[in-house]
Every structure is written in C-alpha cells, then in structure tokens.
Fold DNA polymerase III subunit delta.
Amino acid sequence: FDGSKVTLGELQHACGSVPFIAERRLVIVDGLLTRLESEGKEGTLSAWQKEYLEELTQYLKRLPETTRLIFVEDKSISESNPVHRLALADERGHVKEFKPPQGSELNRWIKERVSKKGGQINPAAVEELGAFVGNDLRLLDQEIEKLVVYVDQARPISEDDVRVLVSYVREANIFEMADALGQRDGQRAAKLLHQLLDEGKHPLALLGMIVRQFRIMIQVKELNERGLSQQDIAARLGLHRFVVKKAVRQA
C-alpha cells in the first residue's frame, strides 16, 4: 500500500481478509508512519493525524493472528510515535532499522557492487560517486550499472567516467556557477561558464538552468526555515538529496 494515501478502512480490510493458500497474510505499507509524523519546528500533530494514529494503534492491538503487517519508512520514526511504542512493548511487535552506509562503509559497498557486476573501479572514482550520489543505494546501483556497461570491462571505472555519465556530477557544475554568482566571484563563475559551454551547453539552456537553481535555492531556504529536514525537502520538491544539500549551503 502507498502510505501517503491509504485510508484506515482500506488497511483494516486488507489485514482482516482471510489468507488464501497460505497460513499468513502479508500486508506492507510504505510511508504511512512518516505521513503521520509532525512537521515543522512546533512538533505538533494535526487533528486528523492524532485521530488516525489513535484508531490505528487500537486496531493493531486486535490485529488478526493470521496477518503480518509491515510498515516501511525511509527515515527514523520518533520514539514518541504510539505505533513505534506499541511495536516495542507488544511481544508480537518488532522494530528494525536499516541504516544506509556512510563514509568508508559506503565506499566499500560501491566497490563490492561494482565487483558483483563484473567491473572494477578506481579509488578516486569511488569517492566521486559516493560524494555526489550519496547513499541512495537504489540510485547508486543504477549509476554503477551504467558505468560498468560504459567501460565494458576494458579497464577500471575512472573519475572521468563518473563525471561524464553521472548526471548529478554534471549538474554540480551548474550549482558551482550559481554559487560563484551569488558570492560575486566573477572569475570562478566565468571559468565554470566557459567549461559548460565547452561541454556543448547552449547559452539559453544555461540561463534556464541558472534560473532553476536560484528558484530551487529559494524554495529550499523557505522549507529549511520551516524546520524540514533535507530528506523531507527532497521528497517535497522531488529533488535528489545531493541537490538539496548543495542548495541549503548556498541559500
């Protein structure tokens, strides 16, 4: 189920259905508890969130024995969340956090993933890929697949390969130029502009990109001041977390 729009009635109906050709019925809900978390600095829940959480918690206490209900969230849930508390207190409940790899663990994951796909990668390329794509493992896997196919096992993946193929690295130059313009660093902005033109970017396309980046910075700054995390901002604006991270620093 899509937790961003599932109703409690739909969830109860799915959980209450009798299993077919199996002893247990598995119901997976993605993002519901995140939807029921408070937003902003005030940390308060709306009336509908409180009502939904209260009714959901009461229903979970009488969840059929034949049903296994799993809540999948892309960020940690507050320990004060009643569903979280119930899962810890009830013997039928279970909480498991899968933290994405960071730093050296992320680099090791990238190298192992490349190896599993039959390729090799230089240490500098590992650093470049991890720095710009981040620890979004699904996206990293897609980018690694492209890079492995690109070099076709003829040689290890290089830093230049990452810069050529990975879209977030190319977009980083636009941010750098926008940053230079914002800091009135004409020399650096001009250097980056010529670099982008040499890469074949059309002047009008560059203008559009600059306008887009400043619009993103304004939107990110507004949401950041409202207390939203970078992950929440990325989800709200439909942007990659790397883009949001850069925009927060520039704004």
About this structure: Residues 168-250 form a domain with the Zinc Finger, Delta Prime; domain 3 fold (CATH 1.20.272.10). The longest strand covers residues 25-30.
